[in-house]
Amino acid sequence: MDFSGKQAQEAAPLNGVGRFLHGLFWVVFAILCAVTFLGGLALVPGNLLFFIIALPVFGLIAFWAYRYHGRYFWLYLLGIALITRIVGVLLFHPAPASDFLVQYNAAQSILHGNFSFNKGYYFSSFPYQVGFSFFQALLLHIVNSVWWLRIVNVLLSTGSVWLVYALAQKLTTSRFVAQFAGMAYALSATPIVYNGVLTNNVASTFFTLLSIYLVVQAKHSRFSWAWVLGGGLVLSLSNFLRPDGLALFVAFAAYFVFGLFTPRWRTKLLHLAIIAVAFLGCNAALSGAVSASGLAPAGMKVLDPYWKFATGIELTSNGQYSPRVLERTKAIKQERHLSQRDASKAMMMENIGNLRRAGVGAVARLVVNKQNIFWFGQGGLIFPLTDMQKTHPKLAAWVDQLKTAWMLWIVLFALVALFPLWRKGYDPQLLLVFFIFTFAVVNLVAEVQYRYSFSVQPMWFIMAGIGLEWVLAKQRQRG
C-alpha cells in the first residue's frame, strides 16, 4: 500500500548465514517485544480513559494521512509542531533543577572562563557530560538567558518532527507512513513538554535523527560513502551532547554487519569502516580537545562505569536512581576505604548477589517494570511537570497519563509492523529495529529513566506508520 505512487526498492537478498542470523535476531527481538507488550498491558487499566480518548485522535491522524495528497503537508506539519511546542514551553518551564541545574551552572562558568566546576563530584565522576554544558555556553554567549535555551529547544524539537517525516519517506517511499509518523510525533506529549527543561535529550535527538537520515540517504546516492561519513560525524556530535552514541553506533554497525551477507558486501564493509572511523575518530578528537582546553582534564571518559549498572539492577527501586544505592555506595567507600569507582563496583556485585537470591520471578518482574518505565514512563514527566504538580496536580496527572496512553498505542501499532519488517529482510528499515533493540538491551542492565528512551522513541512512530499501512493494505485486499 503506497500512497506516494512510488515503489520501494527491493531489499538485498541475504545468503544462508545471513538468513540464519537474521532469523535468530528476530526470535530474540520478538521475545523482547512480547515482554514489552505484556508489561504495557498492565498499564492500560490505570490509563484507560486516555487510552480510549487517544484512539479516535489516531483515527483522525490516519484519515488525514490517508486522504491528503497535497504538496504542502510538510508546511502544515511544521506549523502544528511549532505551535504545540511554543504552547508547551509557555505552560511547562520549570526552573533548572537536579542534573540540569548542575549542567546549566557549569555552562555559566564556562561562559565566564571559570573551569573550577570540573572539580566537583558530578563532573569529576562523569566528565563526558561536559559536552552539553559547552553547547549551552555557546548558546548563552549569543543570548545569556534560560529562555533563549528553551527557544533553541523548540526549534530543534520542531526540526526533529520534520526529520521523522523525511526519514519515514526515505525508508518507505510511502506518503501515508511519513504523514502519519510525522503528525503522531508532532502531537506526542513527551517532546512537547520537555522543551522547557534544560535537558540534553532534545538537541541530541535532533542530531541522532539527522545522522540516521544521512546514512539512509546513502542508498539513494552515487556518493554513498560521503553520506555515511556525514552520518558518522553527526552521530559523534549527538554523542558529544548526550552519551547515547555508543548504543546508536552499535545499531548502525549491526546493520552494516548484516550487509556483509548480501551481494553488496564490499560496499557495506566500506561503509562500516567509514562510520567507525568517523564516529570513533571524531569522539577521540572531541575528547582530546575537551582535555586540552581544561574543560575536563580526563577528557570525555566514563570514570565511574559501574554506577549506572549498580543502580540499574537495584530491585527495590526497579533500576531507577535510588538514594539507597547512593548511601550504600558511600558506606562501602568509607568502610573499605575504596575509590568511588571501586565502591560502585562493589555495590554492583552486591546487587548481582541480591538478584541471584531473589530468584527468576523477581528478576522477571524487574525486567517488565524497567521496560514499562523506559518506554511508557509512568510518572516519567516528573521534570517538566514539577510546577504543575504543585499548582494543578490533577491536570499534571492527566498529562502524564495521556503521554503513557499515547506511547502504548504507538508501540501497539509498531508491533504490528514486525511481520512485514521481518519478511522484508535486509533493508534500511531494519535500522529502526536495531535502534530499539540496542536501547532496550542497555535498559535491561543500566539505570533506567523514561527520558533515556527520548532519542529512540521516533523509531516507534515510524514503525507504527508501517504497521497501520500494512493493516490498511490487508483490509483493501479483502475489500
UniProtKB/TrEMBL annotation:
Select a single GO molecular function from the record's annotations and give it: pentosyltransferase activity
Entry's Pfam families? Answer: PMT_2 (PF13231)
Q: Which GO terms describe its cellular component?
A: plasma membrane
> Where's the Glycosyltransferase RgtA/B/C/D-like domain?
132-281
Name a biological process GO annotation: lipopolysaccharide biosynthetic process
Superkingdom field: Bacteria
Q: Does the keyword Glycosyltransferase apply?
A: yes
Q: Which UniProt keywords apply?
A: Cell membrane, Glycosyltransferase, Membrane, Transferase, Transmembrane, Transmembrane helix
The record, for PANTHER family, names: MANNOSYLTRANSFERASE YKCB-RELATED, MEMBRANE PROTEIN
Supply the name of the protein: Glycosyltransferase RgtA/B/C/D-like domain-containing protein
- Lineage of source species: Bacteria, Bacillati, Bacillota, Bacilli, Lactobacillales
